[in-house]
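Subject: for your reference before the review

Hello V.,

The reviewers asked for a structural picture of the protein, and I figured it would be easier to keep everything in one thread rather than splitting it across files. Below is the amino acid sequence we used in the manuscript, unchanged from the supplementary table.
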Amino acid sequence: MKLALGTVQFGMPYGISNTQGQTPFVEVENIIQHALLHHINTFDTAPSYGNSEQILGQLFKQPITNQPLQIITKTPHFTSSSITDSDIQLLHNTLQLSLVHLQQHTLYALLIHNADNLLQIGAERLYQALITLKQQGIIQKIGVSIYTPQQLDQILPHFPVDIVQLPFNLFDQRWLHQGYLETLQQKGIEIHARSIFLQGLLLMPKEQLPKSLEQYYPHFQSYYQFLSEHQLTPLQACLGYALCIPYLDKILCGVTQKAQLQALLSISPLTDIQNIQHLAIYNEKLINPSLW
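And here is what came back from the structure prediction:
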């Protein structure tokens, strides 16, 4: 199953189109049960996602499925100018707390949450700490959460990883057309796509688009015209596009209701993507939500 659940909404209000706020516990339970029923067993969380890890831990403290759970969490952000002894200690302390919150002894993967931490002085110490945790069997895989191709170009030659998590959507197609996805697959690296709805922006009707993005309205108009011409809903277009890209191992989606997950499960891969490339945009100020 390519679908994986992003769980930030379980621990805090998140997303430009999220009007529901933090997902109530009982609804999280419904979502998780439905996910497992449909063989979705990968759950992506982080210590910075409010109390997401604690919520998941309450649901996973007893075996609730015969499927092996693939729980992915992330490192804290290291804010000093170089990686220090105290940063390595923070890494271990934070991971230990994550294990306690998640009520797990081991995890599928630990990702560097801030890729720039692997570009700092002393980054090799951080990387070695991850390798040691992997050797100890505390984590199965190590990885990094990437925002830009430039980060990947600088990190990958020096720090081989098992997983790269990156943004991918109808607007952000650079990873595909610049050959990054093919290269990662050839190296045997798992590719986890996030932001396939651009934090929900691509699911919003045109009248609800933020005023702050007004300069990009013509590009959105092309997107809405594409939907109309091909008789696609935004959900069908966004997820259908991601599902038809063979390089992607996992597609992370966040939901706040079981009904939303049911809708995701109903989507089929697009069969004709020849005319999608014209929707690509390379302006970081639009495709990188942290710059909004």
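For the response letter, the relevant points are probably these. The chain has one domain: 3-291. The first helix runs from residue 8 to 11.

Happy to draft the paragraph if you're swamped.

O.
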